[in-house]
Amino acid sequence: MKKYLIFFIGLFYFGLNQAFALTYAQTEAKGQEIINLMATKQYEAISKQVDSLYQSSYPAYVLEKDWAELTGTYGAYQSAKPVNYELSSYYHFIAFKLQFEYLPYIFNISFNDAGKIIYLSFMEAHKIYVAPDYCDVSKFLERKIIVVNGMYDLPGILAMPNQSGKKPLVIILPEAGPTDKDGSYEENKPYKDLAWGLASKGIAVFRFEKRSNNYGMFLLKDKAAYETFTPREELLIDLYKIIDSLKTLPDVNPDKIFILGHGQGGMLAPLVAKERKDIAGIVMMGANAKRTQAMMIDQYEYLSKVSPEKKPEYDEQTRKAIRSMDKKLNPLTEHHLMPYDVQATYWVWLNQYPHLEISQKLNKPQFVLHGERDYQANMENYELWKKTLQKNSKAIVKLYPRLNHLFYAGDAQSTYSEYYLKSNIPENVITDIGDWLMKIAN
Questions:
Q1: CA angle at residue 154 from 148 to 160, to 5 degrees?
Q2: With a threshold of 0.70, does the pTM exceed it?
Q3: What is the DSSP pairing of strand 252-262 with strand 279-285?
Q4: Looking at the domain covering 18-127, what would its CATH class be?
Q5: Is the CB of residue 103 less than 8 Å from the CB of residue 130?
Q6: CB 37 within 8 A of CB 45
Q7: Which of 192, 363, 412, 421 could serve as a FRET partner for 13 with CA atoms 20 to 30 Å apart?
Q8: Residue 260's beta-bridge partner residues?
Q9: With b meaning 16 or more CB within 10 Å and e meaning fewer, what string describes 264-276?
Q10: Range 140-441: architecture per CATH
Q11: What pLDDT is attached to residue 19?
């Protein structure tokens, strides 16, 4: 009972948030006022707006020193744009991207219910996640929701548009491996780009932590006991519980639930749409059309040319991938003989999964997006998706030049290290997905 209460407590707090004294518009206006006071060097006026409990932390001379250092290093202040907004039972938080002459910087400020400052800080924009310009943080709020599935708590974040009425819902089905709710590569968070970008367009988006991220020790115990482990245990069982839970929310339209899968999550999306009648359509980003192990072998061949010093390591993984493709693979094969030491049952399941056949026959809307520079699911996969879905009138397959597996733009040869270069998903990708979803939802 205690675990189930967590879910409802989160919703209760959200209800409380709506009764707070400051609206979003008031919070943004107060933040802009403080920035303008800073830019006009009225530091004493700012200090007077600090709550009495925190005045010792933000004296006028400290604010003056910080601003002088910023403008001295980054040039004259030019403009400010909100890039984050949060509510809790204790504060109203808003972050602005301050554009200076040379580089941007992040300004964070929190107010209490009385509109007094309780927190203020500056952060380097290149060291943290910064929402792209197409995200409008005034148009949605995020809720933390924990969905309980048996012994597993699945923490997630629901980005919910502010307008009244029931909204279409997208659930992000993540990539294989230790992928968190944001699809993080340090400060790069492509799933957060998707969630905030689509929520800005009136579409609710839920992203969640895979059970492998929080329950690794339990999974290792199961692995040691040679328990069955497949993509169902990794993702689908939890996803179905999430769908059942979220479609009961009062501001979610249960008839307009979509799955947005990335990578292997995209490859699994057709199965979800087939098995779940309550899924209205699917989006597949960077999904492999080839068998998973065949795609892996392509990757190793590519990376061996890009990083020849690691060729022995890639050759070993290629041998494991080939071994795992054996149609007569013993489910009890020793783990060290399998790719990444993942149980043989995982690969047996994938060997039997006819995702192209399911997708081809699926009588639901599908949108396949593919990056031209995606070396993980290369262009052979794009051509296979085109061929497979060419006669399916409800399917769209679209290629995006210059984009890699994370749908980040670039011109050089794509590598894994590129994923850590500061970037965001381009606006045209968000627009295409949002327009497609809204067309179906309406």
A1: 100
A2: yes
A3: parallel
A4: alpha beta
A5: no
A6: yes
A7: 192
A8: 172, 283
A9: bbbbbbbbbbbeb
A10: 3-Layer(aba) Sandwich (3.40)
A11: 44
